[in-house]
Design goal:
The protein is of the alpha/beta class and 386 residues long. It contains 13 helices and 13 strands. The strands form 3 sheets. Strands 4-5-13-10-11-12 form a 6-stranded mixed β-sheet, sandwiched between helices. Strands 8-7-6-9 form a 4-stranded parallel β-sheet, sandwiched between helices. The radius of gyration is 19 Å and the shape is globular. The protein starts with a strand and ends in a 14-residue tail after the last strand. Bound molecules: pyridoxal-5'-phosphate (PLP) and zinc ion. Zinc ion binds next to loops.
Length: 386
């Protein structure tokens, strides 16, 4: 573990990494863990990775948690990167299938690292608002760690997510409203209840877990990043984490300066980042009346909005919004052509590929990676059994 300190992503203020912290103590924006890569390089090389365990803890030197502390792990990470057989058409399409993680979504990556660190730094009760999958992952890792999990979810969260949280011993509260309302409820009660808030980007370590998406991608593509990445964006942790990983890997000497064009895919019914990108804003206003079956994309306001927008512009990428009917339709197309029952958030990226291809923003022969962030199995309520 070679994290030297925490740094504010907005004002740059340094914070100690030995304390349980949420956001910047001065401006309230997300904190990043800064890794001393010169020291990490001593034992972590591209070659030594070959002999390590498959889970994301294979990148131990660039993750937080002291070397002598056992991580809270259920075998997260190390998911397959599959070549699309048919769906890609004339594009060299790859699918990072995150549905193979514990609790069937990529949220396991962030929660393994965040729960490990929260426990290490003394937290006993963890709280998070969740659109569904993050709650399931928090419930699992908190159970494994012997910590309490307090999960607040919108009442219309997929049933599977609600049930899995309860079955893993979490305290579940269903709320009328959206994930932002759930977050506000936690903020109101956390001091009195003694909860440590592990909301997306409101503590520094979920993004560290998510950054391993970027490390794995590079490793699986033999250290040559793709031309474009399509990512279903809610809070944006994966996108932000991958971008951090790319910069770290460049300092480590593992990759060059090439970066993929990063595309944020959202739902037409909740597209704050799409709107802000298109109108040239630096931050995204709250999206009114947010509605979509892709519960992970039903995030009307993201604390990391400025980071997401920066990455999309810096990478010369962009945005696409997809409506719910199209997600369901494309989900069946992907299922029957590739053998994957993708989540609606993943399906949105496959639909986005078609429109980006039609708009000429992705061209023939380019290497594209789509993140299927979870399994369709959690969303049975959205599909007809006919
Ligand atoms: C399946 C799925 N995809 C995508 C997302 C959005 O993730 P992020 O917060 O990293 O943008 C979520 C978040 O809940 C999700 O559950
Ligand atoms: Zn700050």
């Amino acid at each position: 573990m070679f994290v030297s300190h925490l740094e504010c992503t907005a004002c740059g203020l340094r914070h100690e990494s030995s304390r349980l912290l949420n956001v910047c103590l001065s401006c309230g924006k997300p904190l990043f863990a800064i890794v001393d890569l010169d020291r990490a390089r001593g034992t972590l090389t591209r070659e030594t990775l070959g002999n390590r365990e498959k889970s994301l803890w294979r990148y131990r030197e660039v993750l937080p948690l002291p070397g002598n502390v056992e991580p809270i792990s259920l075998g997260e990470g190390g998911t397959p990167l599959l070549r699309a057989e048919k769906f890609g058409d004339d594009v060299d399409l790859w699918i990072k299938d995150e549905s193979l993680n514990p609790t069937q979504s990529f949220k396991a990556r962030g929660m393994s690292v965040a729960v490990s660190m929260a426990k290490h730094l003394g937290a006993t009760k963890l709280a998070a608002p969740s659109a569904g999958n993050a709650g399931g992952a928090l419930a699992a890792y908190a159970a494994r760690a012997g910590l309490e999990a307090h999960i607040f979810m919108p009442r219309d969260t997929p049933r599977a997510n609600i049930i899995e949280c309860r079955e893993m011993g979490a305290h579940v509260t269903l709320m009328n409203g959206l994930i932002t309302d759930c977050g506000a409820e936690i903020a109101r009660r956390k001091t009195k209840e003694g909860w440590f808030d592990v909301s997306t980007l409101k503590e520094p370590y979920r993004v560290e877990g998510k950054k391993t998406l970027g490390y794995e991608l590079a490793e699986q593509l033999n250290w040559e990043l793709p031309d474009a990445v399509l990512y279903p964006t809610g809070g944006g942790t994966g996108l932000i984490g991958m971008w951090k990983a790319f910069d770290e890997m460049q300092v480590l000497g593992w990759i060059g300066t090439k970066r993929p064009r990063m595309f944020a895919v959202q739902a037409t019914g909740c597209a704050p980042i799409v709107r802000a990108f298109e109108t040239g804003e630096k931050t995204a206003g709250e999206f009114p009346n947010a509605q979509t079956i892709a519960s992970g994309l039903r995030v009307p306001k993201a604390i990391g909005d400025f980071l997401i927008l920066n990455i999309l512009r810096q990478s010369d990428g962009g945005v696409t919004a997809v409506d719910d009917e199209e997600m369901i339709r494309v989900s069946r197309e992907v299922g029957s052509s590739e053998g994957l029952f993708v989540c609606p958030e993943g399906a949105a990226c496959f639909a986005a590929l078609k429109s980006l291809r039609a708009e000429g923003k992705i061209v023939s022969g380019e290497r594209v990676v789509i993140f299927n962030t979870g399994s369709g199995i959690k969303y049975l309520d959205c599909y007809s059994a006919q």
